[in-house]
Amino acid sequence: MAEEKKLTVLQLLPALESGGVERGTLEVAQALVERGHRALVISAGGRLVAPLVASGAEHFAWPIGRKSFKTLLLASRLRKFLLEQKVDIVHARSRVPAWIAYLAWRGMDPATRPRFVTTVHGMYGVNRYSRIMTRGERVIAVSNTVRDYILREYPDTQAERIQVIHRGVDGQAYPHGWKPHPDWQQAFFAQFPQATEKRLLTLPGRITRLKGHEDFIELIAQLKRQGLAVHGLIVGGATPAKRRYLEMLSERVHSRGLEADISFTGQRDDLKNILAISNLVLSLSTQPESFGRTTLEALRLGVPTAGYDHGGVGEILRTIYPNGLLKPGDLDAAAQRIAGLLQKPNPVPGDDFFPLRDMQSQTVALYEQLAHAPRASDT
Question: Which of 80, 129, 105, 35 is nearest to 357 (CA)?
Fold first, then answer.
């Protein structure tokens, strides 16, 4: 039996600084290398380049995510790159890189060009610019919510081209019941002494109106009125464009008399530790999330988690912890459910839900199947 052909797979994304798309790129690259394939990544670079290269992948620094018509000129350069590197699979993970990849790919011989894959990581604004993410020969949706969005908003997308591959979490990195070192806990509570000896409610996520910070403040106020000794942690940074919104949130905390009950931690590199010491982690996004990785990370640590029952967060909670489902926007009902979870917490099951290895193996299998699948020009 002939030896299985080793593939050269190119992933494209704007940068490698931080975030779920970026981590997914590294995780897939690692899986490719482990299976003997060649993993290439084109991005503008960032702090995740070092671990990417350390895994055995190759990185090429291009300004491929810049939102400018000049970026389209990279298409001819990319076409040459695909030929020189003998790329078998082109996988675009963001809209500008997807346009560059598509323009390069469309100009190649249909009988010999690489196969084209896209991943829809979010529910983008519905327009021609975003439609490019549905143009892959295979389209990966990171949740059933995203699959439904594609079929609803882009009904000309063939359902058989869409494959749902849920994002995953490494159970070894997020073991059930894990707690950070006592020294870290001591330092944390020294920084936030008002949180000491309180039930900790954590809302992770960047500072933006979509993440439900205003609902969080109101919930803390209601729980305090019920006599519960709680402290809210808002964990996430604010970009310069969101500084005014952060100031508005701070003023709302002040006007409600909650300065001793809510702490803004800013951007943190120790989110896993904060999740692990929390009594309850919340997801209150006003719009459905495409997946909800932080919700899954908290649950994999065994931390009770509650969130609005929509989008990917709703999918995760229905699978792992249905007691944490909250009716979107109903703060009174949410406060009652949260109070119940704090006073009599239901244990989080320790099963291996949404394992990272499944995401990796399913993605690599998709590459391998597509590489050997008949081309449209062959049928």
Answer: 35
- Check: CB of residue 51 under 8 Å from CB of residue 34: no
pLDDT of residue 4: 75
Q: ∠ at Cα 365 (361, 370), nearest 5°? A: 155
Question: Model's pTM, two decimal places?
Answer: 0.89
Q: Are 118 and 132 in contact (CB under 8 A)?
A: yes
**Domains in the chain with CATH codes:** 8-168+356-378 (3.40.50.2000), 182-343 (3.40.50.2000)
Q: What count of other Cβ atoms lies within 10 Å of the Cβ of residue 262?
A: 27
Q: Which residues face 233 on adjacent strands?
A: 202, 263
CA 234, distance to chain mean position in Å, is: 18
What is the DSSP annotation of 161-179? GEEE----B-TTTS-TT--
Task: HSE, CB side, 13 Å, CA atoms: give it for residue 47.
Answer: 4
State which amino acid sits at residue 287.
Q
pLDDT band at 378 (very low <50, low <70, confident <90, very high): very low
DSSP string, 245-256: HHHHHHHHHHHT
Task: Look up residue 353 and give its two tokens.
Answer: 């839900």
Q: Which tokens in the block code for residue 160?
A: 């058989």
Alpha-carbon dihedral angle through residues 225, 231, 236, 237, given to the nearest 10 degrees:
80
What's the pLDDT score for residue 78?
A: 97
With a CB cutoff of 8 Å and minimum separation 6, the contacts of 300 are: 169, 171, 174, 175, 176, 353
pLDDT of 1 above 50? no
Distance CA 173, CA 182 (A): 18
Question: Would you give the DSSP letter of residue 15?
Answer: -
Residue 3 has pLDDT above 70, yes or no: no
pLDDT tens for each residue of 214-245: 999 999 999 999 999 999 999 998 888 899 99
Residue 371 CA neighbour count, 13 Å, CB half: 19
